[in-house]
Amino acid sequence: MRRLTLAAALLAGTSLAGPASAEESQRIVEEPLELTIQMNHARYPRYQEDWPVEVVAREMTGIHLVDATVGANTRTDENTGKAEALNLMLATGEIPDIVGSSNIKAFVNQYGPEGAFIGLNALIEEHAPHMRAFFEERPEIRAAISAADGEMYYIPYLPDGKYGRAYFIRYDWLEALDLDVPQNVEELEEVLIAFRDQDPNGNGMQDEVPYFARQWPELIRLVTLWDGRSSGSDTYHDFYVDDGEVLHPYAQEGYREGIANLARWYEMGLVDAEIFTRGSSSREYLLSENLGGMTHDWFASTSGYNASLADKVDGFAFKAMAPPASVSGVRMEEHRRIPIKPDGWAIGHTNEHPVETIKYFDFWFSPEGRRLANFGVEGQQYTMVDGEPQFTEEFLTNGKPVNNQLYEIGAQLHARGYFQDYAYEEQWTNEVALEGIALYDAGDYLIDQFLGVSFNAEEQRVYDRYWPAIRDYMLERQQGWILGNGDVNADWDGYIETLDEMGYAEVIEVMNSAYDRQYGG
Ligand code: CA
After folding, report:
1. Predicted confidence band at 7 (pLDDT cuts at 50, 70, 90)?
2. Segment 193-236, tens digit of pLDDT
C-alpha cells in the first residue's frame, strides 16, 4: 500500500510540475540541506567541499556535504590505514551523517547490525529508483554487499569493465630467437630458457630476467599453469569457490604441484631472483633497461611501455599473449576486475535525514549523477558528442595521468558509492591494450569470482581467532618453498596437518555457512 501511495504521489508531482528540466529533476530539497561526511581514501585523505564535481552536485541536488573527517592523516597502507581512520571515528562517539571509505564493507557489516549504521533496504525500495533498478538487474551484487542480517549497510563503488591483468611477453625477443608465442606451459618453459640463455637483448651477456613481476604474488599466479589457484578474487591470497564450496587455494593439490614447479623455475633462473624484494619499480626498470622478458600485469599501463620506450629500446614490442594452456589443457586468466569493491559509503545512525540522504545516494546512480562521478564537469573535462560524454583533447593530452586529474576534481572517488562507466577509461586506453583485450575477449579466458561473505558474530569470532595465523603460515611456507627452503612435495603432508591443527577446517566451515546463507538462495 505504501509503495502504491508513493508512486501515485510521484506521478501527481510530475504531472503538476510539467516537463521538468534535467536540473530540476535532480533537486532533492528545496532549501539547501547540510549533511556531514567522513571520507577516507589513500588517494584523497579527506573530503573537499570545493571539488568541482561536488560543487555541481550541490547545485543540482540541494544537498551540501560538510567535511567532518576524523583521522584523515592516518595514511598508511591499503589494509590498515583506512580501518584505522574508521576506528578513530567510532572512538569519538560521533558518526557523521555519511561515512565514505575504502574497505568500509566489513566495518559497516559488523557495526551496522549493532546499530551504528542505518539499514538501507527499505530506504532504497521506497526512495531510490535508480539503485533499486540496478539491484534488481544484479541480484548477486545485492547478495554480496548484504550483512548477515540481510540488510545492506553501504552502497559500494562498482567497477566497470572486465579485464585487469594479462600475460605480456617480448614479441621482439621471440622474433629475435625465431620462437613462436608459447601456447602451453611446456612451450613457455622452453621460451623462458631461451630468454635466459640466448641473449635476446643482443648485448653479449646473459643478463636477461625471463619472468618478473611488480607484485610478487604474480609469480604465485603461475600455479594456474599446473591447475592450481592463487586467489578467488582480485585480492591476493583470497578464498575461491569450487563447485559451490568455498576453499582456500593454498591447501589444494594443484597448488602443491604449481609451487613445486615454480621453485624449480626459480632455481633455474627463469624467475627474477629478486622477485620478492624488487618491488613496484621492477617493471619500469627491467623494461627500460631491456632486461625483462615476460610478466603478468595490467593491460593499459603495461601496454603503455610500447609507446614510452619506442625511442629507447630498439624494436621494443611488449604485448599481451593468450594464457598458456595448463598441464591439463586449461587456458585461464585468473585475474579480472571484480564487479564490486568493499569501498563505498553508508549512513550514520544519528542522521536525521535518511530519506534525503538515500535520494542523494541515488542521484549518483542517475544518468546525470553517474556521468558527473565518471567524467567530471561538462564543459570542463568533457563535452557531449553525439549524446555521449567525450573527454576534451586538452584533458587527454596535457601529459598528466587521467585518473589523477579525475581524483583531483572529485570524480572517480572510490569512497563514494557509484557505478563506474568503462567508457571513461576506453577513451584513453592505448591501441596495444585494446588489441590485447580483444584477444582475451575472443578466447573467453575469464572465470567467475568469489565476491566475499558477511559473517554473523559467531562466524566472525571463529575467523578472527584462526585465520590470521593460518594465512601468515601459508605465506611463510610459500615463499620458503620458492626460495628453496624446504621441498613442497616432501613437506606437504606435514603442512596440511599443521593447517588442520591451526583451525583450517573451522575457518572453512564458517566461510561456507556464511556463503550458503548469502548466496544459497
Ligand atoms: Ca643479454
Report:
1. very low
2. 999 999 999 999 999 999 999 999 999 999 999 999 999 999 99
Closest C-alpha to 39, from 303, 413, 397: 413
pTM of the model: 0.84
Beta strands in 368-472, from DSSP E residues, in sequence order: 382-385, 388-391
Per-residue pLDDT, 401: 85
Q: From ligand 1's centre to the CA of 319, what distance in Å?
A: 20
* Distance of CA 262 from the midpoint of ligand 1 (Å): 23
Distance CA(81)–CA(168), nearest Å, equals 32
What's the CATH class of domain 164-335+434-521? alpha beta
Query: In the block, which residue shows the cell 573527517?
Result: 69
Instruction: Tell me the CA–centroid distance for residue 183 and ligand 1, in Å.
Output: 24
Domain(s) labelled CATH 3.40.190.10 in the chain stretch across 33-160+339-421, 164-335+434-521
Q: Strands, E, within 299-404: which ranges? A: 318-321, 344-347, 382-385, 388-391
Q: Which CATH number fits domain 33-160+339-421: 3.90.79.10, 3.40.50.300, 3.40.190.10, 3.40.50.12160?
A: 3.40.190.10
C-alpha of residue 205 to centroid of ligand 1, in Å: 4
What pLDDT, on the 0 to 100 scale, is given for residue 72? 62
- Biggest CA–CA distance in the chain, Å, is 82
CA of 16 to the centre of ligand 1 (A): 77
- C-alpha 176 to ligand 1 mean position (Å): 12
Å from CA of 207 to ligand 1 middle? 5
How many angstroms does the Cα of residue 26 sit away from the middle of ligand 1? 62
Segment 148-190, tens digit of pLDDT? 999 999 999 999 999 999 999 999 999 999 999 999 999 999 9
Distance from the alpha carbon of residue 198 to the mean position of ligand 1, in angstroms? 8
